[in-house]
Amino acid sequence: SSIKGRVGGFRAMAGAMASVRAILREPGARWVLGGWTLFTLENVILSENRAAIRRAYGGSNGQAAYQACYSTLSALTLGSTVYAYYRFADTGRVLRLPRGAAVQLAAIGLRAAGFVALGQLAPPINLGAAPIALGLSTPDPDLPPMVRGAMGCPFDFNAHRGQGEVFGITRVTRRPELWGMVALGAGGTLLARTTTQVCFFGVGPFVCSVILAYHADRTQRASGDLSPSKEAQTSNLPFVALLDGRQSWSSVSEEIVGSNAGAAVLLALLGAMRPSWLRFVRSA
Fold this sequence. Notes:
Layout: H1 2-24, H2 27-48, H3 50-57, H4 61-88, H5 101-119, H6 129-133, H7 145-151, H8 176-190, H9 195-223, H10 228-233, H11 240-243, H12 249-255, H13 258-273
Helix pairs in contact: 2-4, 2-9, 3-4, 5-8, 5-13, 8-9
């Protein structure tokens, strides 16, 4: 029985490798996965050599030079990936997968979760600024000028000041920007029609985010940017710290920015409805 099991395992592995080779023979899959690979390598290599790059430029310009190099290369690699998707999205093997109401709802839910995670990193949306901008209300003139100005600003840039290093979405995961991208991609993967789309929305973002999430932990632990207390209180993988008791659901619900979460859900619903003015954006 053990021999039969091993033979079965080898056959399954051979079948999987044959499927991978078949997918990589498709130009769209190669270009899309190549772009994600370059983006991942660029992030890893630059972060590993950040100190050396700073020293090479020297002085106060070191950080600015590093950031400019990082931003430029990230834009180029991601830009090439997006271009490959636009060029080859409808090419390659056509997938015959179920796309019923349950799948559609799951895709919306995953995309909403991704937008919520990413939206919590932005300053809170100030809903009270809209009536002021429209002239429907006026701040109390007795208030200090800075306070009146903040009331009319669409974002509250001071909301997270003094919150500490663990609050809100970081109680769910300390890498919300990466796992949020995975959730967005998973939503697109459920609706993918070709292997190129699966590679763009699913395989690429998942592998990239997993590598970068744990690589970021390693580099930031070494540099001191990830403190021992934050690492002890939070988890890289979403929800682990909540499930093992290091964090509480009540704290998350109290600290999640409702206005940003609502905007994220509306954005996911808007993408699902696909109004005519959004047709220029290709989707899975």
